[in-house]
Amino acid sequence: MKTATGISNSRRRALGALGVLSASALLAVAVAGAVGLGEARAAGNVEGAAARSEVGVRYRTVSVRGVDMFYREAGPKDAPAILLLHGFPTSSHMFRDLIPVLAQKYRVIAPDYPGYGQSGAPDRAGFAYTFDNLAAVVDEFTREVGLTRFAVYVQDYGAPIGYRIASAHPERISGLIVQNGNAYEEGLPDSFWGPIKKYWADPSKQNREALRHLLTVDATKWQYTTGVRDVSAISPDAWTMDQAGLDRPGNQEIQLDLFLSYGSNPPMYPAWQRYFRDHQPPTLIVWGKNDPIFPESGAHPYKRDLKNVEFHLFDTGHFALEEDGGAIAPLILKFMDEKVR
After folding, report:
1. β-pair type (67-74, 107-111)
2. Are 280 and 166 in contact (CB under 8 A)?
3. Does some domain include residue 35?
4. CA 220/CA 54 separation, integer angstroms
5. At residue 7, does pLDDT exceed 80?
6. Is the confidence at residue 5, as pLDDT, over 50?
7. 234: Cβ–Cβ under 8 A, 6 or more apart, which residues?
8. DSSP 3-state of 184
9. How far is Cα 182 from Cα 163, in angstroms, rounded to an integer?
10. CA separation, residue 177 to residues 64, 80, 286 (Å)
């Protein structure tokens, strides 16, 4: 049967297939040209788009200590594993574009902590929102999903959670990927941390309330947009989704509990640094240097303790993947291919 234009359906399908092939060829040329010109970010974005069409991400839930833990999973089950640990105030959603790229070669798992994203948020009366407890839950989660040995990507809150696990079970860690995740006193500037440090020293109601503004939509947007080169490159979906989590009944009190518990982390820095020195895990540092929360000053000290470290600074902010994910993803793949065993 012919259409009104006189072209048969079979011929239209054939032309459509040729169009797809031509588009694929053009994309391949574009990627090759971008790489040849050093345009890693552009190439990474094309690769990421292709990966999303080829790699299926699964969205699952497992019960850990009575808490429904949501997680994203992709990649071959028998491949080397990468555990992605998110920061505040986000969730595994921050890895939405990275996961399909990495999953072309690796098993990738990204959980939401209790109180974050799609995971359960048990009442504070029966669940301790502390970094010790979150690390214990995530540690048990890794065993529930069958991770025996894995590289761990840490960002923000992911660092104190991941480093607790790594220093307790160094034999399970194949490598570290550090993106604005702190383990040194130099990385806690008073310009941001001053009021929080005051809360650690005196957890009064007044000092607690002084931090509540950090849970507003303006503060959440500020985390995403401060220090970036181009605000128009940052999807508002990211901070809108994070804020929806913060605005759930009772969630702000959970976050204020964790602000207080963050004070338990600096006393552990010497132990984590000793873990770095003693075990020398292969490490990739990909750091947004314009981050006012965990600035560049927290990135350089890793080089004191780690000998096998690859170091990259990006001209962006706290959530470096939002603006430079296309450049960071190939670095992770190369690092995993060449350094992680």
Report:
1. antiparallel
2. no
3. no
4. 32
5. no
6. no
7. 224, 225, 228, 319, 322, 323
8. coil
9. 10
10. 25, 14, 7
Amino acid identity at 220: T
Q: Mean pLDDT across the stretch 217-236? A: 98
Percent of the chain with pLDDT over 70: 84
Q: Is residue 3 part of a domain?
A: no
Three-state secondary structure of 213-268: HHHCHHHHHHHHHCCCCCHHHCCHHHHHHHHHHHCCCCHHHHHHHHHHHHHHCHHH
CA–CA distance, 49 with 325 (Å, rounded to integer):
12
Give the DSSP letter string of 60-101: EEEEETTEEEEEEEES-TTS-EEEEE--SS--GGGGTTHHHH
Examine the pLDDT at 67 and tell me if it is beyond 50: yes
Report the helix count and the strand count for the chain, using DSSP H and E: 13, 8
- Whether 11 maps to a domain, the answer reads no
Q: How confident is the model at residue 23 (pLDDT cuts 50, 70, 90)?
A: very low
Q: Is residue 44 part of a domain?
A: no
Between the CA of residue 321 and those of 71, 250, 277, what are the distances in Å? Answer: 19, 29, 28
Rounded Cα gap, residues 247 and 94, in angstroms: 18
Any idea which residues carry the catalytic annotation? Answer: 318
How many structural domains does the chain have? 1
Q: What is the pLDDT of residue 55?
A: 76
Task: For residue 170, give the CATH number of its domain.
Answer: 3.40.50.1820
Range of the domain at 264: 57-339
* pLDDT given for residue 54 in this prediction: 65
DSSP 151: E
Relative orientation angle of helices 190-201 and 251-261, to the nearest 10 degrees: 90
Indicate the pairing of strand 150-154 with strand 173-178: parallel
Radius of gyration of the chain (CA): 22
